[in-house]
């Protein structure tokens, strides 16, 4: 930024070096909680992909008639599972 100004003494552009947070700072910022939440989201996404693949196979083979559930049913089941996991953690 400074080198574009007239009379600037900035000769070289240097990037900033990233530093790791210590344990107390990580806890204060909730970074470990964020990592845990992201892990849960990734795990949930993987489970959803597996479920979708199973349903796609059932549709392809013609066995999906009674096994296809509405989106509301699937969401409710996932909410119930998430609530059960939260209760276990507490």
Describe the structure.
The protein has 90 residues and is an all-alpha fold. It has a domain at 21-64. Helices cover 63% and strands 0% of the residues. The protein has three helices and no strands. The N and C termini lie far apart (49 Å). The mean pLDDT is 79. It comes from Halorubrum ezzemoulense (Halorubrum chaoviator). This is Phosphoesterase.
Brief sketch in words of this structure:
This protein has 90 residues and is an all-alpha fold.
State the main characteristics.
90 residues, mainly alpha, 63% helix, Phosphoesterase
Helix content: 55-70%
Element order, helices and strands? HHH
- Rounded to the nearest angstrom, the radius of gyration is 25 Å
Q: Figure out the total of helices.
A: 3
- Secondary structural class: mainly alpha
The counted number of beta strands is: 0
Provide mean pLDDT, rounded: 79
Most strands sheet:
none
**Shape assignment:** elongated
Distance between the termini: 49 Å
Indicate the low-confidence ranges by residue numbers. Answer: none
Work out the strand percent.
Answer: under 5%
